[in-house]
Amino acid sequence: MKIIAALLAAAIACTPVGYPALANEPAEQQGRLYVTSWFGGVISVVDIASGAVSASIPVGVQDHNVVLNPDQTRAWVTNNNDNTVSVIDTATNRVIATVPVGVGPRHSYFAPDGSEVYVTNEFDDTVSIVDPVENSAIATVGVGMMPHFALAVGDRLFVTNFGGRSVSVVDRRTRQIAATIPVGTGPLGAGATRNGAFVYVACHAANEVAVIDAASLQVVARIPTEPGPVQVSVNPDQAFAWVAADGRGTVQKIDLATNSVVKTIRIAPDAGSHGISFGAGGRLLFVTNTGNSTVSVIDTTRDEVVNTVPVARAPEGIAFIRP
């Protein structure tokens, strides 16, 4: 009996901490996370299986967000106080290029085919259009006040204007403004359904998510949230969206069929929940907590936090890399 007990204890000790519901699904526990650090000037590389930081990549000053190209060979990191984007080779975890852009870059977003990158510049009210092969800006588009997030949906680019209470819609072919959509106060992050039918905008100061019909370019619903919604992303199953809010350190699950919140997960009052990324298949949801310098791991089938990973100081952006 002592031998059996010892073997059982050893097996338990080797089980990844914080993933009890995923013990028989190792594929869900694979991959890496790239996590920014506003005050650290680094990208923390998190190994999902071990739930620990495995590397740290120096980047620019006040790195706000990180996004991957379609084949996940490059990660683009916006450095807000450097007016640059650091380009990381994900195979080597090294910065291979530094791209000058506008003043105060916040987010980058790739065209679906990877041919262009759109970088929002909050302090000169522009979007830089960058060639990712040459790693240089090829055009600049003027948008609204304090642009924060750019989202490519079909032939259009939806740009949230934090200071302008609006979303600028840019024709990606002509690079001209096609429309300006009034939304709630302080629009920040945005997400869209895979078919491009709807765009969801987190309105930080309005405490709501605005739902835009991408065909009519009209707001068709407003979903009340916890205070300070920052980022909203649609789950790969397309049935739900998740919104992180920094006011009370919460993450909320939105039923897209009814445009209503069906679950609120409270992380911590001072967590400053900020960025969102999904793991393979959407079973795991990763949330950065700027206030307590952690990443929360949420099992979306149980709607529970199953792990907490310490990272570099003040994480905001996050991206999942497939194994």
Quick recap:
With 323 residues, the chain is mainly β.
Report on the structure:
The protein has 323 residues and is mostly beta strands. The chain has a domain at 225-311: Lipocalin, CATH 2.40.128.630. Helices cover 4% and strands 53% of the residues. The chain has one helix at residues 2-14, and strands at residues 32-35, 42-47, 52-58, 63-68, 74-79, 84-89, 94-100, 105-110, 117-121, 126-131, 136-142, 147-153, 156-161, 166-171, 176-182, 187-192, 198-203, 208-213, 218-224, 229-234, 240-245, 250-255, 260-266, 273-278, 284-289, 294-299, 304-310, 318-321. Strands 3-2-1-28 form a 4-stranded antiparallel β-sheet, with no helix packed on it. Strands 4-5-6-7 form a 4-stranded antiparallel β-sheet, with no helix packed on it. The N and C termini lie far apart (39 Å). Residues 1-18 have low confidence and may be disordered.
Topology:
Blueprint: H1 2-14, E1 32-35, E2 42-47, E3 52-58, E4 63-68, E5 74-79, E6 84-89, E7 94-100, E8 105-110, E9 117-121, E10 126-131, E11 136-142, E12 147-153, E13 156-161, E14 166-171, E15 176-182, E16 187-192, E17 198-203, E18 208-213, E19 218-224, E20 229-234, E21 240-245, E22 250-255, E23 260-266, E24 273-278, E25 284-289, E26 294-299, E27 304-310, E28 318-321
Antiparallel strand pairs: 1-2, 1-28, 2-3, 4-5, 5-6, 6-7, 8-9, 9-10, 10-11, 12-13, 13-14, 14-15, 16-17, 17-18, 18-19, 20-21, 21-22, 22-23, 24-25, 25-26, 26-27
